Amino acid sequence: MLKVIDLFSGCGGLSLGFQNCAFEIVAAFENWKPAINVYAQNFHHPIIEYDLSQVNNNYSIFKQFLPDVIIGGPPCQDFSSAGKRNEDLGRGNLSITFAEIVANIGSQWFVIENVDLFRKSNKYQEFCNILKSAGYGLTEKVLDASLCGVPQKRKRFFCIGELGGNDDNLQPYLEVNLARKPITIRDYLGNSLGIEYYYRHPRSYQRRAIFSIDEPSPTIRGVNRPVPKNYKQHPGDVVPVTPDLRPLTTRERSYIQTFPEDFVFSGSKTDLEQMIGNAVPVKLAEYVANCLLMYIQEQKTYKIPDVSLV
Q1: Of these four, 32, 56, 105, 282, which has the most CB atoms within 10 Å of its CB?
Q2: CATH tag for 3-182+280-309 (out of 3.90.226.10, 2.60.40.10, 1.10.1660.10, 3.40.50.150)
Q3: Looking at the predicted structure, is the pLDDT value of residue 272 above 60?
């Protein structure tokens, strides 16, 4: 069983996805106490409170776990279209820290997740330079979560590295298993929510806010607000505002992020909304983990899948 450490673990979406695919998570690292508390209630391996901006070239805390794979989703706010998009605010440096940890430990593989705009940043170029210099082949892919078993239109960028591998080695594996059409909320949850339509507060009133469960959810964000009393109908809204129209609850939002029903969430509503919105959807993490596992298993038997025959 391949050993994994999760940097920037949050409440555990990436960890759970890899664990579900028979990877052994041996440790996680996080610096936000509310997320640490939730993570600790749902996993048996240690989660270490650690500020990854303070590594200072001391990698012993990571090396002790002898990881085969290092995974993580550094904070994305500095690259996000929902943020200020200033990669020099400080959090962008954490992606460089991730690269330095991987390069110094020499794990056989790594997986990093971020928003699509990350790949167009100067930080990402610096990230790539560090890892290419350390001997990693890189596979880059933007995945739409709604084609990976998640009932949500959420595009995220993944970079998978293999020590001593060639660039794009995993590209066929990431592409061959994508669904032909997006999965909807009804496809995933049936009628369990007891609603047909719901409100999702838009970033601006230039965007629609009322959605049907017969489509994928828009991206789950870190805020969740009620319907404003003065909300004016948007031309794209699927139905008019009615007295029973409501936003999804915190728990329902966790289902859209494909956390299981028995996953324990505790803490303030504000913290939970934020950590659920920031999480990697579990099924998206599973999709990537399965692709990596398939590649590793094929390499052991010297087989490369011919995508044209699938």
Answers
A1: 282
A2: 3.40.50.150
A3: yes
11, 76, 148, 159: which one is catalytic? Answer: 76
Q: What is the identity of the amino acid at 64?
A: Q
Global model pTM greater than 0.90 = yes
C-alpha 127/C-alpha 123 separation (Å) is 6
Q: How confident is the model at residue 300 (pLDDT cuts 50, 70, 90)?
A: confident
What is the C-alpha to C-alpha distance for residues 274 and 224, in angstroms, rounded to an integer? 9
- % of the chain exceeding 70 in pLDDT: 92
Q: Which residues in the chain belong to E strands, given as ranges? A: 3-7, 24-30, 47-49, 69-72, 109-115, 136-144, 155-163, 197-199, 210-212
Q: Is 291 a catalytic residue?
A: no
Count of other CB atoms within 10 angstroms of residue 228? 12
